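Hey, sorry to bother you again with one of my protein questions. There's a protein on my desk that I can't quite get my head around. No rush at all, and the record is pasted right below.
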Amino acid sequence: MKKFDQNNHRYRKIVYENNFEMDVQQETVDEFTYSIDEYFDESSINFLSEWFFDETIHRKYTLFAKNPFRVNPTVPTQYAFPDTNIKLNSLIKKFHIKEGLPRESFVTFISEGSTPMIAAVILFAKQLRFKKILSIWPSYFTIHKICDVINMDIVPCNNDFACFENTKINLPNKKSFLIITDPIWSIGRHYSLNILKELAKWQKRTGSIIFVDGSFSYMDWYTKRKKELTVILNPELTMRLVCPTKALCVHGFRFSYLLCPKRFSKEVARISIANTGSSCYFGYLQRERIFKEMTKKRINPITHFCVKRFKALEHHFIKNGVKYIEPNCGFFMYADLDEILKKKGARNKYYWLNNKALDIWNPKYKGYAKINLLGREKVINSLITDLSK
């Protein structure tokens, strides 16, 4: 990444400021991000990267709609801190020991969603006196904002997505703090196993700490496997974030957890409790059920819906010669839609998050759109209709 050398702090700021930039029309929606879907609805514009999700997925593919979440009649007069659920902590630990982590190598911290825990990890890197954070893009915008606030540089280390075997990763030969995202949330692919092996060797050689933002973990489309590839990294130097509510598309419950090396647990605990506080009572009661649903030995039910949507879109992508990165996990995909929609005379009907907004610094992805495969039916159907003209 020649544009951003290791002494240039502009990268962290540029990524965050472009986070809500919409495609090549340069429409920026920033200050009212929380109501962005309503904004586009009022404008009769289809937001392909929308935050909204089609609730059909739960009616058709999960038991949540048929078996409503139970409500404990107890009045919540006490604080309920995330980590005080001993049974849930035990379930999480047993699952990851079976996955391959040594029993005594990690501590679990439960959080109200991924965002506060990501912020806690960045603050922890600052506490360790690292001057900069290395990043294999794309990484979540929270990372860039927190780094900007605490004046910490981010250095991008890759020339393309880490799911491709020929991607070059440029890492320094010294102890560093590296952030990776696997699965790669915006395109729906895991890292290449060879690249993860390369990172494991680098970690062993330099003693570097790696934070894995695995918010989209356990969402593989075609396998019952409940084991993430990043488990090959050194558990004594690797922090992994998992988000069960994202895996099951019940985002309103706010439930993530961090697998943290024991040697870091004391300081991470202090930062995370200061950053997160106590739990939402209703979510606190339901987390055990959500975790069990995520870890069942079956193909994730949410992904059946994603596959159905992808196959419908893929047919029209192939027919129209649209370039795309084929997803196999998660619920987003990445496709080059700009020119084809212009050709169809439908370009002004769509907005999306573009490559610059997603921290994807490779010019060949300029016309690509992040598509939410779990988006509302009217948005996906509109795209299919226009591509089929």
Summary: Residues 1-8 have pLDDT under 50 and may be disordered. Residues 117 and 252 are 16 Å apart (CA to CA). DSSP finds 13 helices and 14 strands in the chain.
